Structure to design on (272 residues):
């Protein structure tokens, strides 16, 4: 799929099949030569096995690292937003640099686990919680819930949400992640990154409290992160497209839960 640069999937698939046939034929011929030489020689057999296995894995690793994807997934978006927020000039990484930074073997470490497309029941247990949630999230078409003790950030998506609004929801989540990382750096004695507005400073002061935060303070964290996202996301989206990234489609992989809410209340809806 990543090789079909001009929406020519059928052509690329046909060429890939032809190359695979040629490689299999070459492997058959080489096997016919090597088999008589290695027959009965266990040392040579195991040596060739480990050498060819290593070469196969290394070639696949190099092939994966050479791929440059212009679409967003959770890891690439995390790298983009962190550099964007932490650089004084709001620097936007290119697809090539971001793909080079993306880990292939290990999972990207983040301060919080993000559940994109979660059920409203994961963090709303009363009408008061619902009112606080709607109030702190404003008029957005997604809702946030922060579980400090478990380190989980839940994002509820409206059934009419668009792809760019999903990106904005993930951007706001990364604002909170960045604030957590700044607090960690400060505690470790490392200088903090540039704070661009008062809301980010207030956000960090709340996050400093850690698990001692009250429920009302967690709602305030979400309100402040939404304010920062409203201020910076238009610039982020513009620079994203100028740098050569594709905002649609994405590989952010939200869960299937969707909700519909208004002033009268919220009801869950799961799409199968």
């Amino acid at each position: 799929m990543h090789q079909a640069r001009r929406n020519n999937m059928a052509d690329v698939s046909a060429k890939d099949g032809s190359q695979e046939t040629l490689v299999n034929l070459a492997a058959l011929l080489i096997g016919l030569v090597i088999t008589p030489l290695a027959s009965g020689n266990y040392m040579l057999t195991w040596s060739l096995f480990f050498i060819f296995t290593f070469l196969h894995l290394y070639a696949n690793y190099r092939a994966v690292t050479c791929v440059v994807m212009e679409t967003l997934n959770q890891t690439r978006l995390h790298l983009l937003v962190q550099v964007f927020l932490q650089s004084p000039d709001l620097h936007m990484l290119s697809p090539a640099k971001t793909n080079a930074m993306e880990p292939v073997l290990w999972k990207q470490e983040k301060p919080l686990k993000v559940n994109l497309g979660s059920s409203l029941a994961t963090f709303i247990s009363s009408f008061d919680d619902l009112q606080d949630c709607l109030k702190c999230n404003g008029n957005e078409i997604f809702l946030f819930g922060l579980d400090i003790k478990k380190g989980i950030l839940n994002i509820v998506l409206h059934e009419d949400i668009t792809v760019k609004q999903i990106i904005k929801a993930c951007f706001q989540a990364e604002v909170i992640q960045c604030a957590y990382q700044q607090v960690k750096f400060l505690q470790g004695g490392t200088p903090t990154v540039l704070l661009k507005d008062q809301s980010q400073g207030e956000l960090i002061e709340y996050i400093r409290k850690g698990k001692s935060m009250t429920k009302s303070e967690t709602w305030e964290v979400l309100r402040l992160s939404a304010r920062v996202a409203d201020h910076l996301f238009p610039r982020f989206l513009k620079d994203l497209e100028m740098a050569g990234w594709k905002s649609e489609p994405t590989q952010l992989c939200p869960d299937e839960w969707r909700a519909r809410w208004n002033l009268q209340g919220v009801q869950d809806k799961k799409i199968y």
Remarks:
- Residues 188-195 have pLDDT under 50 and may be disordered.
- Strands lie at 71-73, 113-116, 142-147, 152-157, 246-251, 257-262, 265-270.
- The CA atoms of residues 136 and 223 lie 5 Å apart.
- The longest helix spans residues 9-38.
